[in-house]
Design goal:
Blueprint (H helix, E strand, L loop, with lengths): L2 H32 L6 H17 L1 H32 L13 H4 L1 H25 L12 H9 L2 H28 L8 H30 L5
Length: 227
């Protein structure tokens, strides 16, 4: 393996780690906003629409959104390039029996990432694109009624199922990705390795369960199955 290839791979891994950690931070903010959907309907609608309007009108938030778009694209592209290069490199070496030393989700980050990419395309189309460029009614406070759009989407059982399955894919992606990002950036030290592992696991479970329960709750309440 030549030095140029090694430097290029490390550079891409560093960028993927940085963008990945930024996306981890964004997921927390996004989840906190979406948890408003668990409030009683009237309060949820007003609070969620105000939150959505705040995100679209604040200049600071707009700057963060551009960083988000860049991070999503860069993370996906880097992951693809690194995966292809690793496969090409691995073909030159003997089989190292890594299946016995790594978790199945660590070996299938490409598949999990592909599932998430497909989900993101659908998610952006149904919510972000509709909110930005579609025809969305206004609520009584003059804010675009994104709450109605979300409720309509979560009435469909197949959409809820797709959402939940994608969140589990996200959870497994995070279980490996968080620790991998910390290690790539040189922040993984034996002295606090256990703490990083525990934090990453708790974070991954919290994000997965937090996002997954929202569409299920909304779907069940719409049909009177959860009061």
């Amino acid at each position: 393996m030549n030095i140029t290839f090694l430097k290029s791979t490390l550079s891409r891994k560093n960028l993927m780690a940085l963008t990945g950690l930024f996306l981890c931070f964004f997921l927390v903010i996004h989840l906190l906003g979406n948890l408003q959907l668990l409030l009683p309907a009237d309060r949820a609608a007003e609070s969620f629409n105000y939150y959505s309007n705040l995100l679209s009108g604040n200049i600071f938030i707009k700057v963060i959104s551009y960083v988000l778009y860049f991070s999503l694209i860069a993370h996906a592209v880097d992951a693809l390039v690194i995966t292809v290069r690793n496969k090409q490199t691995a073909a030159k070496y003997a089989y190292d029996n890594r299946k016995q030393a790594s978790k199945w989700y660590s070996r299938n980050m490409g598949i999990l990432g592909t599932i998430l990419l497909i989900f993101l395309v659908i998610h952006f189309k149904d919510f972000w694109y509709v909110y930005k460029f579609g025809t969305v009614p206004f609520d009584r406070n003059g804010n675009k009624d994104l709450y109605v759009v979300v409720i309509h989407a979560f009435k469909s059982w197949w959409y809820v199922l797709l959402y939940v399955l994608s969140m589990f894919a996200l959870g497994f992606h995070l279980l490996h990705g968080f620790k991998s990002a910390v290690r790539t950036l040189g922040l993984y030290h034996p002295g606090y390795a256990a703490l990083v592992q525990t934090f990453g696991t708790v974070y991954s479970y919290a994000i997965t369960i937090g996002f997954a329960v929202i569409p299920v709750y909304v779907h069940l309440t719409q049909f009177g199955l959860w009061n």
